[in-house]
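Thread: "does anyone have the structure for this chain?"

Original post by V.I.:
We have the sequence but no experimental structure in hand. Need at least a predicted one for the grant figures.
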Amino acid sequence: MRITGEGQDVDEIRADEIRGDEIRGDEIRGKAEGTATVPLSVLDLVTVGQGRTATQALRTSVDIARLAERRGFHRYWVAEHHSMPGVASSSPAVILAHLAAHTERIRLGSGGVMLPNHAPLVIAEQFGTLEAMAPGRIDLGLGRAPGTDGATAAALRRTDRLGEGAEDFPQQLAELTRFLDDDFPDGHHYARIHAVPGPVQATAEGGVQSAARPPIWLLGSSGFSARLAGVLGLPFAFAHHFSAQNTVPALDLYRESFRPSAVLDAPYALIGVSALAADDEREARRQVLSGALSMVRLRTGRPGLVPTPEEAEAYTFSPMEREFVDSWLVNIVHGTADEVRTGLDDLAKRTGADELMITANAHGGEARLRSYELIADAYGLPTA
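Reply from O.Q.:
Generated one for you, tokens below.
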């Protein structure tokens, strides 16, 4: 089959290459807790605010992961970004290993690893290791964008031919899946290469290793990955938090394209949502404004640490910057806990999303922790 998206043809890929024989639907589908209509999860960018260190940001990530586990959030993902001082999540696999050591039950995963930046075998080895560390708790979310600017992408990939990564995404995905399942056909030039830890250890003499491996999710902010995920029968995660205008069309395309697979018998889509709750509406506005100023600087080539709410309040936005901020804040669900709950419920209903993955972009870890606690309380999520 040929898959066309965004005016671009990509090479052939067969759905039967994405086998997932050891993946169960209950490893993908979450369970709504409390009064939530869909499962709630967490997306962590490991943000670093002015006057804070990466060490503090990573400690906050552990605190949020523990809170999320205790309060019944379904999964906790971290996203790959590069060359951004205010985002300390350049190495998802390393962070996930750390979080796995500090949690016991919550699903952990990448939201996502940018596949064109890495050799598929390296990702298979990293996530096979994570699966061995935390069996049955690891998700492998994949994106086809670089997660950074072109120059940084070139430094990561050691090439200036950046377009090849996106164009070759389906083939890289098929190769990665073969490594994860250890099932290259006889005669293939990688047939004797094995991702370890992995299924080869189950088939080796005396092997008792489980053949299970992390489920693959496709991530996107437009229609290409939505259609590819549908054709391959994979779960899909859409970046509503920075591409809200494309959310409904992309989810519609995913559902229309969906074909049952060994992984899923019906579509399953989550959306990433920017949401921040505070004890009062003014404080919520202060917190999200600092994140908006951070985005202004990023979009104008001035990436830095996340500014304080005080700096954001005192900042004089140009007319163009103010227009951007206003449009940015429209898509951030913020306010009191009840206001955020209403906004999230409305969004779930409007999009038909099967799961909401909440990201809180604020200067300090305290505000982010408080937000997740308030949202959990608003939905009556478990407290143990």
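V.I.: this helps a lot. Confidence is low (pLDDT under 50) at residues 1-12.
O.Q.: and The two ends are 49 Å apart (CA to CA).
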